[in-house]
Amino acid sequence: MLLTEFGKSIGRINQRSEGEIVKPVQVLLIGLGRVGTRFYEKFHLLGEDRVKILAICEIDPGHPFLASLKEDGIPVFQDYKDALSRWGSDIDIILDTTNIPSVKIDIRHILQESGNHHTVLLPLVASYLLWHMAAPDEELVQDHSNPGY
């Protein structure tokens, strides 16, 4: 029930007034671990009119989920720097689920050096909040010791 209401809310957000549609939120997802894979599935269910996944970054070329991403037409990068270079300020939100502090530091540096003041690097703790909103009935074990900002 709540997930349905959440979906309806997103739909209202994407429609300003009669006939005027807001562009979808464009996301770069980094990491296909337990959290990243579930976020991909949730975003995919919302549809590209609400959330457009520009690309996924995953360092493991043998990750079992990569085949379905390619079937869905989602570009996959092993190095997040290549994805940032390709999409730049077209990215609205970067969702880094790796919980590797050096990755977040590097992304902040790249955004600053490139003058990208549009893209938001979502802190992991905000990802947890997003998860609770999108999937209130599904537990997400917060096993990261320091969610970082």
From TrEMBL:
Q: Which domain of life is it from?
A: Bacteria
Q: By its UniProt entry, which InterPro entries does this protein fall under?
A: NAD(P)-bd_dom_sf
Question: What is the recorded name of this protein?
Answer: Homoserine dehydrogenase
- What is the organism of origin for this protein? Leptospirillum ferrooxidans (strain C2-3)
